[in-house]
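F.,

This is the one I mentioned.
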């Protein structure tokens, strides 16, 4: 057995299709590649021990799994594409919290509880909307609101 060969897959001598090298039977046609599963496993362990990069490999793989970190910086990507991204905002969470209380007010509790919940929810909701639309938006587009006198959205 050639330990230095990094390949985890091998072409089956009978069907010619690629199959995991350290399984005793060909995955495609069942051809016996190893005298026993035990021998195949022992060969695999010797192969894996030969190189630390092979530690993540499995006998059932056709290639060593590569750990690829898929992190996308959308802000950088947007700048690259010339797309204007609004700065991250906390106001939508406030609006959602208000909507939660308004939703609770829809549950048939006693009228006093429902009115109280509706007032709390309405207030939080309004604060969120005012903060998002009037405070933050004006900060984001100062030139536009001063020149035209009204905000365009
Ligand atoms: Zn085969």
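My design for it:
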């Amino acid at each position: 057995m050639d330990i230095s060969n990094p390949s985890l897959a091998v072409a089956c001598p009978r069907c010619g299709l690629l199959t995991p090298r350290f399984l005793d039977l060909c995955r495609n046609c069942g051809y016996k590649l190893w005298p026993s599963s035990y021998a195949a496993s022992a060969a695999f362990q010797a192969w894996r021990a030969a190189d630390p990069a092979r530690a993540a490999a499995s006998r059932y793989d056709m290639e060593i799994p590569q750990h690829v970190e898929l992190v996308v910086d959308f802000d950088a990507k947007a700048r690259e594409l010339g797309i204007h991204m609004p700065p991250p905002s906390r106001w939508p969470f406030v609006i959602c919290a208000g909507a939660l209380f308004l939703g609770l007010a829809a549950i048939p509790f006693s009228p006093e509880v429902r009115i109280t919940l509706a007032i709390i929810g309405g207030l939080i909701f309004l604060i969120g909307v005012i903060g998002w639309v009037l405070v933050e938006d004006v900060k984001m587009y100062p030139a536009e609101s001063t020149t035209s006198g009204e905000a365009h959205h």
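Residues 3 and 11 are 17 Å apart (CA to CA).

Talk soon.
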